[in-house]
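SAMPLE LOG
Freezer: B-3
Tube label: C17
Construct: single chain, 529 aa
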Amino acid sequence: MTIKRLVLIFSTLLAIGLATLSLVSSWQKPQFQSRLELYQTNISLQAQAWQPEDGSGENFPMIRQAILEDQPLENATKQYQEAQKSVEANLDKVKNQLAQLGSQSKITPSPKPLPEDNFDADTSPEVKLQQLQQSFNQQQKLLAELDLRLGILQAKQGKQEAALKTWSELQQPVETNNSTLSPEFRDTAAVLSGLWSNPPRILPNSQQLIQKNLDGWFRYTALIQLYQLQQRQESLSVVKAEQQEAAAQAVFKLTLIGTAPALAALTGTILLIFLFAQRLLKGKAALISQNADVPWSTPWDGDTILQVFVLGFFFMGQLLVPWILSQLPIPRPVGNVRLQALYVLISYMLVASGALSVLYFSVKRFFPLPEFWFRFRLQDKWWLWGLGGYCTALPVVVVVSLINQKLWQGQGGSNPLLQLALESQDSVALGIFFFTAAIAAPLFEEILFRGFLLPSLTRYIPVWGSILVSSLLFAIAHLSLSEVLPLTALGIVLGVVYTRSRNLLAPMLLHSLWNSGTLLSLFLLGSGN
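STRUCTURE (predicted):
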């Protein structure tokens, strides 16, 4: 056995071990889907207040049924109660970790809010204690925001006692001396309790506290209650007009978010039924069977495959590039979303450049490559394969995602880029995110996973097996347990599209449409919150 092969075997085992640790650590992290559902709940609440103009009144029930939920308040209450339980569980977990680390450290941290609960396993106990304290403060603030909103939902459903109980718990003294929870949350809870008490009480600074600590439907609802009690008709008319304008925008956004994907998913479902029926009737002459059993002529062996993926992809992405970035005299941006977006793009481009460079030098000695390798042909009907693949991927991934949600119960981690895109309303930052996700990622990942890995595997296993293995590795490479099943399903559709079309432009288009649709939905949801 050569030294090169020994190094490859050792590197592969190391890569497998580190990837496994990353996946296991993601199990304790909350899914992005949980926060996304709250954002969608908020925009649905905003939309349910919509009252169309007289000209469209007769069509209103039909439009409402098509776009809005039947019981928006009840559904929103359920979502917020589930979110409340999740945050309380996270708080208990952080409290236990603080107790364990606090007994080992004498340092009293100076807490600052963190955007995420990502703890580096290599940090010292003192730094980790500070991070945990910061996370505790962040979770405590989130719980206070949930309590304020949950109480309003309960009050609007006529459950005043439940609402007053929710707000009274928020007004209790904070248990820990290290908490940085703003007293304004307790003051706002007192304001809301007064507005919905019997008889009602109007506390000083009610309007200012409501406007500062509530937003969207919750702010409008509380202000309307305040102005009605104060009998301020002019202010009441203004806020109701603002609410209608915001509700109309929310309906438009919900229509965009729901209609286009729903139509595409319906088209994809019909297309899937057609393809399977054609396969049953025509057998290998069917469209879906085109090139299904035709492997690539692969001139290199397994050592080259490992070299490209272990050295080019894993070590570049997980070790070398992070090390290079850590050595640069530039602090990682936190507050500036444009710098965050630029940092993500630069990191991704460095990883892609390194991996593609290793790929090029690994296969250069086999030039000229056999037919169909890294094939880009504008003359083919690649756009039909890409568009049709996108439509068929929607119902497939949605079904798998629903199963996945039941399996992981809100845990398993998520891609941090999704949350940045959701919470960023900066057009420049969103443009950078779009370039990263909708252009750079499809180019790099399709060249590596579909252009190189999938065809290379056909030297050892059938085409269908190569699709499965490459799809699973594609999903694992994202290092989030909650994303493994949905991304494997997406990878299978990408693999089928590529093996049938034999044109890399087809899966690139599919991948770009998928990421673009996701980013557009996140932007619309974020702008409604």
